[in-house]
Write a structure and sequence with these properties.
The protein is 47% helix and 13% strand. The chain folds into two domains: 13-167, DNAb Helicase, Chain A, CATH 1.10.860; 182-435, 3-Layer(aba) Sandwich (Rossmann fold). The chain is an alpha/beta fold. 33% of the residues are buried. It has helices spanning 13-25, 30-34, 45-59, 66-76, 83-93, 100-129, 134-149, 160-177, 189-195, 214-228, 243-255, 259-264, 269-283, 297-305, 330-348, 380-384; strands spanning 203-208, 233-238, 287-290, 310-316, 352-357, 387-393, 406-414, 420-427, 432-435. The protein has a nine-stranded mixed β-sheet, with helices on both faces.
């Protein structure tokens, strides 16, 4: 039996009618209602179908009033009621169009209560069916509740009109802000120009052999993103360094203090001054760190769901992550983690950067620059990733290299456009990379 079948589902049909009646009285108020409501928020089939027509008219810039809406509803042919009589009823129950936002909020509140009841029913039904353990059930429940908190369902089809409205809002915000990037800045202009920044829902892999400096580069990106957008939280998950080690390296980079001096505490008065300034900068950001060495993708996702203003997630690094996988096959386990990270990026609607190691095949070639096939253990990494970055520094492999402390960040895959190479300079005393401007 359906656990919610005997419940009287929350609804307010008068408020639903008042929303549509307000739009009949004043067509320009449709935009105000569409900022709050989607067609599926309406309990009544008739009201839902009429509001869908209103949404389509608004999306195409058509004028909306009682005459034009009546004509479009008739053309759609979905409303079963006598439309003309029903429109008269709507106008009768609507006191004033000026309260449309309040009417819309009542409708939205009832819709949320219905979705909570439906979600509770799904969870109860899944438990009753059996076949899932507590950890899987908790993940399922958290994902469902997170979708409700974000004001969207996690499964059903989305009307293209909704997508157009969301895209329109994004384009308008970018135009008004004068932004040149569609995503967060990495702090490296050449890389930003290639990738258009770190974009929402992207899985970005940063790969290299051990000792080349991928952790340092990831910390650079985390700090730059946190400083440039102080309204967004940057979450850094390290599986091989403690929180104190992570922050010490960030302070060394920000203050330009030799990392060895910082570790030993042999600091002069000027060092302490610079350290204090750097600490103030870091403290003013919404940068959060986690050093749980046994964490899994599922647990990272659960923690990130609780951050309302999340902007970026970094994971250091893939091969150390706890798989929570039932299979002992490493290839399958890595493939599962890869897919989970991509789904996490899409669900949270933030870029996720994951560090990973390249296979030994890269050091056995004459040209040791990374290629996509060097991604270790699973071809699904290449498939799931939107962007793959390969970090290379020749003197990490050849001690007598003429290219001393000269690095390359190679964009091996870019779902958004071009690939290319960004020249970097390695500064070992500060364990940081800086971009080299080679245009001249």
């Amino acid at each position: 039996m359906d656990p919610i079948s005997n419940l009287s589902m929350p609804r307010d049909l008068t408020a639903e009618q008042a929303v549509i009646g307000s739009i009949l009285l004043q067509g320009s108020s449709a935009g105000e209602a569409l900022e709050i409501l989607h067609p599926e928020d309406f309990y009544s089939d008739t009201n839902r179908e009429i509001f869908s027509v209103i949404q389509a008219m608004f999306s195409y810039g058509k004028p909306i009033d009682a005459v034009t809406l009546l004509d479009e509803v008739r053309k759609a042919g979905t409303v079963k009621a006598n439309t003309e009589d029903y429109f008269r009823q709507l106008l009768t129950v609507t006191p004033t169009w000026r309260n449309i936002a309040h009417y819309a909020e009542i409708v939205r509140d009832k819709a949320r209560l219905r979705r909570i009841a439906e979600t509770a029913g799904e969870i109860t039904s899944k438990i009753s069916d059996g076949g899932v353990d507590a950890a899987e059930m908790l993940e399922f429940a958290e994902r469902k509740v997170y979708s409700l908190r974000q004001g969207r369902g996690s499964d059903g089809l989305v009307p293209v009109g909704d997508v157009i409205l969301n895209l329109w809002d994004q384009l308008r915000e970018m135009a008004e802000s004068g932004a040149t990037l569609s995503g967060l800045s990495t702090g490296m202009q050449r890389l930003d120009n290639i990738t258009m920044g770190l974009n929402k829902s992207d899985l970005i892999l940063l790969a290299s052999r051990p000792g080349v400096g991928k952790t340092s580069l990831a910390l650079n990106i985390a700090l730059n993103a946190a400083k440039k957008d102080q309204e967004k939280t940057v979450a850094y998950f390290s599986l091989e360094m403690s929180c104190e080690q992570i922050v010490a390296r960030m302070l060394s980079e920000e203050a330009f203090i030799d990392g060895k001096k910082l570790i030993t505490g042999r600091l002069n008065a000027d060092d302490w001054r610079k350290l204090g300034q750097a600490a103030n900068v870091l403290s003013s950001t919404k940068l959060m760190v986690n050093d749980n060495s046994m964490i899994s993708v599922m647990e990272i996702n659960a923690l990130c769901r609780r951050i309302d203003d999340l902007g970026l997630v970094l994971i250091d690094y893939l091969q150390l992550m706890n798989t929570n996988a039932k299979s002992e096959n490493r290839l399958q386990a890595v493939s599962e983690m890869s897919r989970q990270m991509k789904l996490m990026a899409m669900e949270l609607k933030v870029p996720v950067i994951c560090l990973c190691q390249l296979s030994r095949a890269s050091v056995q070639r004459e040209n040791k620059r990374p290629v996509l096939s060097d991604l270790r253990e699973s071809g699904s990494l290449e498939q799931d990733a939107d962007i793959v970055l390969g970090l290379y520094r020749e003197d990490a492999f050849k001690q007598d290299s003429a290219e001393h402390n000269s690095g390359e960040l190679i964009v091996l895959k870019n779902r958004h456009g071009e690939t290319g190479t960004v020249k970097l300079q390695w500064m070992p005393e500060y364990t940081t990379y800086v971009e080299v401007d080679d245009r001249y």
